[in-house]
Amino acid sequence: QPLSPSAPQPLILSSSASQPLSLSVLPADALSAIFQRVADPETLCRLSSLSCTSISVAASSSSFWKPLFLRVWGKGLLSKVEASIAAVQKGEEREVPQWMEEPSRLSSEQQTAVRESHVIWLKRPSLKTAFCILSRLVPSYFNADVDCCCLLLTEGESSLAERAEVVGNFIYFASQPRPNMVNVKHAGTKFLTVAKSDPRMDLSRESRLAYFRNYNLKGMDLMSALRMFLKIGLMPSEASRICRLLWAFAGELHTQNLDCEAEGSDLSKKSGLIPSGGRWVSQDVVYLVMWSLLVLNADAHNPHVKKKMRVHEWIKNTNLALEGVGFDSTNQESEGGALRESELSAMYHDVIEHPLQAQVDHHRATNRMVLDRITEKKSTGSSFSGFFEAVKSMFDVFKAPLPE
Predict the structure, then answer these.
(1) Which residues are bridge partners to 234 per DSSP?
(2) Number of helical (H) and strand (E) elements in the chain, helices listed first
(3) How far is CA 305 from CA 300, 384, 389, in A?
(4) Contact between 205 and 160 (Cβ < 8 Å)
(5) What is the pLDDT of residue 126?
(6) Element (H, E) at 12
(7) Rounded to the nearest 5 degrees, what angle is found at the Cα of 162, between the Cα atoms of 203 and 118?
């Protein structure tokens, strides 16, 4: 639950005897075991700010902060910060360290923040303090100069995979709403979806995959996963960029649930992700079903489309699209055979009753949802006659200028 440093109530756990157990009475090794499972730096910061000394000390431990630091900021910054900690403790460093100064070089406001942060740093040099300082400085640097910021983050990484892992993790971390931190969602989305002709394409593609590995999609049904995708991420306006994001997300959803598919576990049956014993057999299938749902959303909730797709029409169009990637939509007996009509029907009614909504790209439009734009497309009144026509129509909408 959300933690507040000023909350008067003690932090409690439920014990086997149904009596509240205060965290403050637990020994240090027990607290360490609990906090080892805390992967969120904001939560650890709040825990370290509590008045209870045992909790505060445990949550400030470098053993918790080092893996978090390495994950978000990379090896290069970690080695610089650790060297800086040792220098401050020996009294050898009084000037602003390079790792703190570099992100501030493009902004006078950042330079003021650096001076304030340096005072804190000299008093409490630690990985936790450095993590908080970088959280304040680096996102603004990323928004101002993506390429230079990526060089800063990946300085200690040797391979493309290692560099992409740090960049993807950083964008995921800095795209979430956090207090006292600039959000990089817009700049991050643009970087993660650059075109093939862009010289940064390789790093962008691998970072996109690393970004989605931060999502916990294990056992999640496809509709819930699609709604999460639209809610957490910032949808770009260009159709080609949406395709790149959705393709990577579909691949991660498929990958995280491969064991459900292989084992035929109860989880796969319960989740609805792999209906009828393993039918999300490829990234292609997941991707096309998600696109089909987006098209259905556009058709169903566009007031200018007079003739709406009925459930049997949408199911037919979806299965025709799946056949285009070699998915047998007619053989009910084969492994990965046709999706049952009841399964697709349930998805259809879910979208009809609960429209899909995405976060708006506020750099290009204000108070508009990207998917709402589809519903505002003026047409001659004709409805979608097939899945591929619907996709083309959807692409045309995204390429059109945003409404005021």
Answers:
(1) 359
(2) 21, 2
(3) 8, 8, 14
(4) no
(5) 93
(6) strand 12-14
(7) 95
Residue 359's beta-bridge partner residues?
234
pLDDT at 225: 92
Q: DSSP H helical segments within 36-92, as ranges?
A: 41-48, 53-59, 62-89
CA 49, chain centre distance (Å): 27
Q: Which of 287, 270, 269 is nearest to 278 (CA)?
A: 269
Q: Cβ atoms within 10 A of the Cβ of 270, count? A: 11
Output the pTM of the full model.
Answer: 0.78
The upper half-sphere exposure of residue 342, i.e. CA atoms within 13 Å in the direction of its Cβ, equals 3
What pLDDT does 275 receive? 46
In terms of DSSP H, where are the helices of 214-340? 222-232, 239-256, 258-263, 266-271, 275-278, 283-300, 311-323
Whether 91 and 109 have beta carbons less than 8 Å apart is answered as no
Q: Which residues of the chain have pLDDT under 50?
A: 1-17, 261-279, 332-337, 362-404
Block residue for tokens 């056992």: 219
Nearest to 347 by CA among 254, 246, 227: 227
Q: Which position has the token pair 């995204």? A: 398
Look up tokens 């047409």; give the residue: 379
**Strand, helix or coil for residue 146:** helix
- The CA-atom distances, in angstroms, between 7 and each of 44, 179, 215 are 15, 18, 30
Report whether 100 contacts 158 (CB < 8 A): no
Q: How far apart are CA 189 and CA 169, in angstroms?
A: 13
Instruction: Provide the 3-class DSSP secondary structure of residue 21.
Output: strand
The three-point CA angle 47-53-57 to 5° equals: 60
